[in-house]
Every structure is written in structure tokens, then in C-alpha cells.
Amino acid sequence: MSYDVEIVTHERPAVDGLGDVTVDGPLAVEPEDLAEPLAAMVLAPRWLTTLSVPFDASQRRRQRVRALARGLARTHEGAAFDPQTDAVIWPEARQKRATALKAETTSIVRLEWYVPADRWTDAPAVLLRAIGRRCPEVLPRRYGASEPFQHAYEADGFAAFAAAEDTFWLASRPSFGGHARPPDEAVGQLGVDLDWRVLDSDPRWRETAVDLFAAMATSVGAFYAEGWVEPGWRVSSNNRLSIDAGRRTRGSALTRGGWQGLPSEPAWLTWFGGRYREPVAAALAEAAPPRRRLRRAVVPAVDERPEGLLVRLDQAPRAKLPPLPLPAELVRPG
User: Fold this and answer.
1) What is the C-alpha to C-alpha distance for residues 331 and 20, in angstroms, rounded to an integer?
2) How confident is the model at residue 295 (pLDDT cuts 50, 70, 90)?
3) What residues form DSSP beta bridges with 110?
4) Is 285 helix (H, G, I), strand (E, B) or coil?
5) Which of 40-49, 124-133, 290-299 is least confident?
6) Would you say 208 and 201 are in contact if contact means Cβ atoms under 8 Å apart?
């Protein structure tokens, strides 16, 4: 047995010269590979390093290992975790990972997942777990069916409420909140809103959003999901959204008549699961590349997974994007 301390970072750390301390790693990881308290402390965690000494080592050697771990975490903007006590030892308090931005008219990034009815009951709880590991700022602060929201956040209460009725919530920067819409018949919907300004300027927040998008789509068995940029929203100084009455926004992929097929509008991120995975993959593979390289040419990044197809139209989120070559028979009419 050994006495271990774990360090998680986004960038790969250089670990050498630690004397009689055993070093395991750095090893590539995903948020699901980590203890939840540790995963939640690091934005876009990618590397795990473990420092060890024999379990019967002196208290002085144990303290040295903890000090080394804290130093590595501090240097690499990561976190250190003691598995023996199940506690994060650095940082000592959760750090603010998104600064307050000025009140102005800007864009939002909306992520939405479309969930089969037979997977809906657990979907809100799955969303909470996925958010909690990656970006706790997006967790609800208050929620309800309409404003002013009557419920303070508590995980089990929120999950039960959102599984049963239309739910909206407020969150902390860089999120504005989210929504849940239980199935009318066959399809339920979950969504979160993020501040485009943060995702555009901070690659780690951008990758966190992509990771959340794909992890949720996989976990809830989404047959379709999309993440797009929508301009024209006003952000207040207290992190609330508003929009001019009558201003046209992008419509939901789920219409009043239910699910009618894939929307034709392009999105920064799209997920094709279920019966859409194979025909969309084939259509993308057959699509001819541009004959010449344009200055702003977009070549979709396609990540083929067993559960579905993740398509990313650009590194950074932007509003104006070319449409995907989707099979016409799968696209919603009109």
C-alpha cells in the first residue's frame, strides 16, 4: 500500500526531480475518470499525476508529498486531491473561473439535447451529474415553472421537478441558466445557455462546453443535439438575459407538432444518434471537399463514437456557418 496524492491539470505538467517520491503519470484522463470533487475543481481536466510514498512513511514525508502536490497544482492551475480523506487540498476554496463581464447586447451559446421518452425520467439527474463534474457554475441556483422562481436548488428536488414539468433555472457566470421540457409524446428536451464572450475568448471554457455537449448526448441516449450561437441578447449586470419583444430567435428543433425531422439550420455543434447516425455519417463522407481553400472555409470536424456522431463546424463558436449536407429525407420540411 502507499500514501497517494493526486494532481489534475489541463496542460500536461513536467514532473521530475522529486527525490524519493514515486511519480505515476501524467496520464490522460476525462472528467468521468476522476473523483467528482477533484473533477469539479479544474476547468477541462486532461492530465492526472499521482505522487506516492509508502503507506507507513513518516508524517514528515507525507507532509512533503502534500506540499509537492499543492505546488504542482498551483503552478499548473490545477487541483490536488487526497484520496485517503476524499478531500481537495488545493485550492482551498473554489476559484472564480469566469470574470464578470459588462452589461451589453451580445450572443449566447445554447446547447440542447433531444431525449427519447423512455430515457427521460433520469435525464435531469444525469444532466446535474454531468454539469457537476465539468462546470458547477451551470448548476441551478433557483428554478421553477415560471418567474419569479420559487425553489432554491437541491439536487433530488430539482431532478424530480424537471422530470415532471416544464422547468427553467438561473445559474452563475458564464451560464445564464437552462430549461427542461418533459416529453409530450415521444421526445423530451434539455438545454443550457452559456455566455458566448467567455467561450469565444477562453479555450478551456470552449472545450468544457464541447465535452459537456458530447457527454450528455451519450449519457441520455440523445438521438439529436445541437449547440448554436444566437446574437441579439441583452445581458444585465446581474447575469440575466432579455431580448426585444418580437425579435425572431432560432426555433426549437421540437415543434408544436412534435419531432418532424432534423432542422436544416447549421449549428456550431451537432450530435446525430439513434437512426440518424449512420445515414448522416455516410452523407458527410460522400460530400465533396471545397475545390479551393477559402479564407473562411469550414471543414466539419467529425468525431465518430459508438453512441453517435459529434460534428463541430468550427473551433470557436460562431453564428454564420454553412449547412451540413444532410440526407434530404431526414430533414424537417419547410
Assistant:
1) 62
2) very low
3) 193, 228
4) helix
5) 290-299
6) no
Provide DSSP, 170-226.
E--TTEEEEEEE--SSSEEEEEEEEEHHHHHH-HHHHHHHHHHHHHHHHHTT-SEEE
Place of cell 470533487: 37
Task: Please enumerate in sequence order all residues whose Cβ is within 8 A of that of 178, keeping only pairs 6 or more positions apart, or say none.
Answer: 138, 140, 168, 169, 171, 190, 191, 192, 193
Tell me the chain's radius of gyration from C-alpha atoms: 22
pTM of the predicted structure, to 2 decimals: 0.90
Q: How far is it, in rounded angstroms, from Cα 286 to Cα 324?
A: 12
* Spatial separation of the C-alpha atoms in residues 305 and 280, rounded to whole Å: 13
Axis crossing angle, helix 155-164 with helix 123-134, rounded to the nearest 10: 140
Residue 298 has pLDDT above 70, yes or no: no
What does the alpha-carbon distance between residue 254 and residue 222 come to, in Å, rounded to a whole number?
A: 13
Asked if residue 82 lies in contact with residue 14, where contact means CB atoms within 8 angstroms, the answer is no
Task: Tell the burial category of 159 from Cβ atoms under 10 Å away from its Cβ (0-12, 13-18, 19+).
Answer: buried
Q: Give ∠ CA 4-7-9 in degrees, rounded to 5.
A: 165
Buried b (16+ CB within 10 A) or exposed e, 197-226: bbbbebebbbbbbbbbbbbbbbbbbbbbbb
Tell me the pLDDT tens digit for each residue of 157-198: 999 999 999 999 999 999 999 999 999 879 999 999 999 999
d(CA 191, CA 150): 20
In three-state form (DSSP H/G/I as H, E/B as E, the rest C), the secondary structure along 59-90 is HHHHHHHHHHHHHHHHHCCCEEEECCCCEEEE
pLDDT at 24: 93
Q: Give the number of other Cβ atoms within 10 Å of residue 185's Cβ.
A: 7
Least-confidence region, from 22-36, 119-133, 234-248:
234-248
Q: What pLDDT, on the 0 to 100 scale, is given for residue 294? A: 45
Nearest to 127 by CA among 35, 223, 216: 216
